[in-house]
Inverse folding.
């Protein structure tokens, strides 16, 4: 039997039908013998094969599919326990790198990833790796769990954005995709707020103990499809400031009104989340915007709105009967009990870290610390904000390095936005930088930048600021070349 004859037989319809029948038979027998879990695994094989096929054809599918999964993880983690959901995202990103290097190595331009942002991410990752030698560290396994959220994920994602999502169409697709997924979250939040929780959601709150922080004085802090109310509030604040600033940009009327509608939905979501720290994102974002816009009218309007909001919350009791307004107002109260507890905890941490410049080790705080080193002081320490956690785990050295990296990127982003010439590019980059600045401040009270899907939006939009700079430079050169050609043709040069 020659090879040509064998290939013809394998390609025949009869062989395909027999193969499909065999597959169905095997699945049915496994279901009878081993139960439903085997059935699920076997049925997942074709889906995985299809995913890998698409990924090999379109590597940027790895970014979008993992972004979609980041929206699903919070819900799945509430109702289907003990599965490493985060690993799915990191596995997809690693597979995307493998596809790039083995299939598209000659086609893809990797030079866009050679920039200051990726360099700083690499430096931070190197410091986290060195933390394995920290004498205070309790467990290498705890390090492996904890380092993913604070270092590894961003090092995987940000270079991929520079390499793969570097066209205007990519930017449009990302904004539409992320806003569409966010709108689903806002609609579900409205359902929770107006109609109540589902039976499964109520059971989750009380069985997990989350009811203590999500039902206060008989009022629900809405969490939507996110991990918890704090994450939802910050995500809503992030979408609110981006969409509101894009509404002010030089876009067509349809897009402007769409952005305005999304901003209103997002603001509503932020309010019903009861997350006081989320206020920092639109507030700080507005300040960044009015500085960068270079327009006196907008600066006056923006500062007036901020001043009005501050006076309304700080010096009046208007709307005090409304729970959402009352809770937001407490964010500006220096006598707030939760604020004072946080300050006391941070003083205790300073005492604990004396003589420990590199901290207690990555993975010693929070649920990871309780899992791997439950009887230690740090495992039972409530860090609240991301910066406090970084100081606890990596010490004063890691704390200042971490702050330097992210605020230096903010400074570079300011320089980029300040010098952009094309109005549409300036509007997009300024909106992204404003939300990034707000997230940096919000990290003080919550671990915003390590939570899905906020971290996705933060890192992707951050990369796009520097990608937009490249587009603006190209447009400027094209305009100069065009002007020079006109002068040469007219004889005036």
């Amino acid at each position: 039997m020659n090879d040509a004859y064998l290939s013809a037989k394998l390609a025949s319809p009869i062989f395909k039908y027999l193969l499909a029948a065999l597959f169905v038979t095997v699945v049915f027998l496994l279901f009878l013998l081993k139960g439903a879990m085997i059935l699920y695994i076997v049925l997942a094989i074709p889906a995985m094969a299809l995913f890998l096929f698409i990924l090999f054809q379109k590597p940027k599918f790895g970014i979008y599919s993992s972004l979609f999964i980041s929206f699903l993880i919070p819900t799945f983690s509430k109702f289907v326990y003990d599965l490493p959901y985060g690993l799915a995202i990191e596995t997809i990103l690693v597979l995307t790198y493998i596809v790039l290097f083995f299939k598209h190595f000659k086609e893809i331009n990797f030079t866009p990833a050679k920039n200051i942002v990726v360099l700083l991410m690499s430096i931070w990752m190197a410091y986290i790796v060195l933390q394995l030698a920290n004498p205070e560290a309790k467990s290498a396994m705890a390090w492996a769990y904890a380092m993913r959220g604070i270092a590894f994920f961003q090092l995987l994602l940000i270079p991929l954005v520079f390499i793969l999502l570097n066209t205007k169409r990519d930017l449009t697709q990302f904004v539409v995709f992320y806003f569409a997924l966010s709108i689903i979250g806002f609609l579900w939040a409205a359902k929770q707020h107006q109609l109540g929780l589902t039976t499964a959601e109520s059971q989750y709150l009380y069985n997990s103990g989350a009811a203590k922080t999500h039902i206060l004085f008989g009022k629900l802090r809405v969490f939507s499809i996110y991990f918890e109310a704090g994450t939802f509030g910050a995500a809503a604040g992030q979408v609110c400031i981006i969409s509101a600033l894009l509404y002010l940009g030089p876009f067509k009327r349809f897009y402007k009104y769409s952005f305005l509608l999304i901003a209103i939905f997002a603001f509503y979501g932020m309010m019903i989340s009861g997350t006081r720290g989320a206020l920092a994102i639109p507030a700080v974002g507005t300040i960044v915007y009015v500085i960068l816009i270079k327009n006196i009218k907008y600066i006056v309007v923006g500062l007036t709105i901020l001043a009005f909001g501050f006076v309304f919350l700080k010096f009046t009791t208007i709307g005090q009967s409304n729970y959402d307004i009352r809770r937001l107002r407490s964010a500006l109260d220096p006598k707030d009990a939760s604020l004072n507890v946080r300050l006391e905890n941070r003083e205790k941490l300073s005492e604990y870290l004396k003589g420990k410049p590199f901290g207690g080790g990555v993975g010693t705080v929070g649920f990871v610390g309780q899992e791997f080193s439950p009887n230690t002081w740090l495992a039972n320490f409530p860090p609240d904000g991301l910066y406090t956690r970084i100081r606890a785990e990596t010490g004063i050295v890691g704390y200042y390095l971490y702050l330097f990296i992210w605020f230096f990127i903010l400074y570079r982003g300011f320089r980029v936005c300040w010098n952009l010439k094309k109005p549409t590019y300036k509007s997009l980059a300024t909106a992204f930088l404003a939300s990034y600045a707000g997230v940096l401040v919000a990290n003080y009270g919550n671990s915003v930048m390590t939570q899905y899907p906020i971290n996705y939006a933060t890192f992707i939009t951050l990369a796009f600021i520097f990608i937009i700079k490249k587009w603006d430079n190209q447009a400027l050169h094209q305009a100069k070349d065009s002007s020079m050609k006109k002068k040469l043709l007219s004889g005036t040069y």
